[in-house]
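ok new one. same drill as before - structure tokens go in, u give me an amino acid for every spot. 619 of them this time. try not to just spam alanines like last time pls lmao
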């Protein structure tokens, strides 16, 4: 009876997974969701406004094109096909651009459900009830709802780890007969394919594959006698040797595919006329090696300073609790029980424990640590903790704590965190469309400040009439301009707004309502600012909404409670901005630094002549 209930719960969770994807989720967890996949494919396939970060530089690319092609390219190709039938404007919208890749990733996430069940059954000696509990722990987790349904490469890592652990879990006989040798080579090929595919997509996936690979290579090792030792050496050698063909195939495949995307000339220089090993090696080295470039960048000593340095214990003491809550305590209890107890398949449980601990330990050695980096340990954790939720009727308190934790986690990461950015981009589409229809070719500009970088492709705006440079181009076709000032200085923001003729170029400022009062008051004093759009909830960890200050012209003075002020500040505002003075300052101001570029607050004419092509991609 409990097994039937568990299956019904999973079916409801599966439907909820799709429903929460379709709503859609407004939470913006991290820019990599967009700028490592859909932003790239939207521009290449649909010719939509997009922006390629430094990782997609043709000279030193640090990301393989395979991942965005699989995660976003397939759904966008479907949209392109449908657009040809039903019309571009009817199919290519901000909503469909957001939902299509997420629906595809949601569908792929069910691979993890199936493989968790398959592995858990083996771990607990055929106990289907505990296996279904493990599946439901995954299906009810906010990690599943908020992370696995999005285009993070970490979500694909989780799928690869699930496949890898299931392959390693299948034992192969000790006898070196034809059947066992064939099974060993086939399995070795698939294991190596999964590992190297994961490596080329995301080099940091290797810590998750290290322990399972060692367990598989040393699966039949025995030191009982000399004959056994010799046989173990032969077996280990054969297993290692079985990995090489897939490693070679994956390396060439990814190099050629990346070469076709980043540098077609290198691929076309294949030495057909003088085919030998030496020339083949020279040709292969000329192809882009995205994984190597990625490793070089991440091993650079200056990298942590740019992305943030975290203590070595961040993964173990902070991120684990942030992702899994009460399961982290149960995980420790499960490890102790596995070591001291007799229940379950010891070899497979040790496989899960070793994978979990080794991955967290290795990734803790890296200075920059984000919760999503250890997303793949979800699989071993839910299987190890499943017995503590059985039977469900006797674990009501634990189940309640687990569900409450995940509801809070989903509300924060799936809805609230930077929650106004995506609705703001959709609003931008509607404004730009209305502006194009009513104002002809006059452009409109949106300046984002103190928010995550807006995904340009979600504007669903044609690339030929879109601009993301610091100073709008003199091009009659340009209708929509978006500038991301990120976390730059307040002085730069004011200097830039002063430099724009807002009477010619309609300008909007997108900022969180939690900006310091000193800045918001200065902006209102210097410019005519009216709220055109406001979205709640929006939480910015960079600008916490807990300041007791009430800014004039921004916060309602009638709200007396601290809670009402906090809630009021948890919104994203879009202001229409207009200069109060028609004449800009003539005097040159001090040069203001922004990344590697510098600007001066000069007249519009001087800007147009002197800086016609300042590109924010270099900033």
């Amino acid at each position: 009876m409990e097994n039937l209930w568990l299956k019904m719960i999973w079916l409801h969770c599966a439907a909820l997974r799709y429903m929460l994807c379709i709503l859609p989720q407004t939470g913006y967890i991290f820019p990599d969701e967009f700028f490592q996949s859909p932003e790239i494919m939207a521009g290449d396939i649909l010719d939509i406004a997009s922006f390629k970060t430094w990782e997609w530089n043709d000279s030193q690319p640090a990301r393989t094109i395979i991942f965005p092609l699989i995660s976003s390219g397939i759904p966008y190709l479907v949209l392109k096909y449908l657009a040809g039938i039903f019309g571009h404007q009817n199919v290519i919208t901000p909503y469909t651009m957001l939902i299509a890749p997420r629906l595809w990733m949601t569908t792929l996430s069910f691979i993890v459900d199936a493989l968790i069940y398959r592995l858990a059954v083996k771990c607990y000696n055929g106990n289907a009830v505990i296996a279904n509990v493990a599946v439901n722990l995954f299906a009810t987790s906010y990690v599943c709802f908020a992370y696995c349904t999005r285009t993070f490469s970490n979500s694909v890592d989780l799928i690869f780890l699930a496949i890898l652990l299931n392959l390693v879990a299948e034992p192969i006989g000790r006898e070196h007969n034809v059947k066992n040798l064939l099974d060993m080579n086939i399995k070795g090929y698939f294991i190596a394919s999964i590992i190297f595919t994961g490596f080329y997509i995301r080099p940091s996936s290797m810590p998750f594959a290290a322990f399972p690979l060692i367990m598989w290579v040393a699966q039949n090792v025995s030191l009982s006698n000399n004959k056994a030792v010799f046989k173990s050496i032969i077996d280990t050698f054969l297993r290692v040797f079985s990995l090489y063909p897939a490693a070679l195939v994956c390396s060439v495949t990814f190099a050629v595919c990346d070469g076709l995307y980043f540098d077609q000339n290198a691929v076309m220089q294949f030495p057909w006329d003088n085919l030998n090993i030496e020339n083949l090696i020279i040709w292969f080295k000329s192809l882009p090696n995205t994984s190597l470039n990625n490793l070089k960048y991440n091993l650079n000593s200056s990298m942590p300073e740019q992305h943030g340095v975290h203590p070595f214990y961040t993964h173990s003491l902070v991120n684990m609790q942030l992702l899994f809550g009460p399961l982290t305590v149960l995980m420790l209890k499960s490890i102790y029980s596995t070591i001291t107890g007799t229940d379950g398949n010891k070899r497979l449980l040790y496989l899960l424990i070793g994978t979990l601990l080794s991955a967290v330990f290795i990734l803790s050695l890296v200075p920059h640590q984000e919760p999503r980096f250890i997303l793949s340990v979800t699989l071993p954790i839910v299987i190890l903790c499943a017995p503590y939720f059985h039977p469900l009727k006797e674990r009501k308190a634990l189940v309640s704590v687990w569900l409450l934790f995940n509801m809070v986690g989903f509300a924060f990461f799936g809805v609230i965190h930077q929650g106004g950015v995506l609705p703001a981009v959709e609003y931008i589409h509607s404004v730009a469309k209305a502006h194009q229809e009513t104002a002809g070719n006059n452009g409109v500009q949106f300046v984002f400040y103190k928010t995550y970088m807006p995904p340009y492709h979600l504007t669903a705006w044609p690339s030929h009439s879109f601009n993301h440079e610091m100073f709008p181009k003199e091009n009659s076709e340009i209708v929509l301009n978006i500038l991301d000032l990120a976390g730059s200085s307040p002085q730069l923001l004011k200097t830039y707004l002063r430099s724009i003729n807002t009477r010619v170029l309609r300008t909007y400022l997108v900022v969180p309502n939690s900006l310091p009062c000193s800045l918001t008051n200065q902006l209102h004093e210097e410019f005519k600012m009216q709220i055109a759009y406001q979205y709640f909830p929006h939480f910015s960890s960079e600008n916490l909404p807990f300041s007791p200050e009430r800014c004039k012209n921004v916060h309602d003075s009638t709200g007396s409670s601290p809670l009402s002020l906090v809630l009021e500040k948890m919104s994203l505002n879009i202001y229409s901005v207009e200069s109060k003075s028609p004449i800009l300052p003539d005097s040159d101001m001090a040069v203001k630094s922004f990344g590697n570029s510098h600007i001066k607050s000069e007249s519009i004419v001087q800007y147009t002549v002197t800086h016609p092509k300042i590109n924010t991609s270099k900033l």
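The mean pLDDT is 88. and btw Residues 333 and 563 are 39 Å apart (CA to CA).
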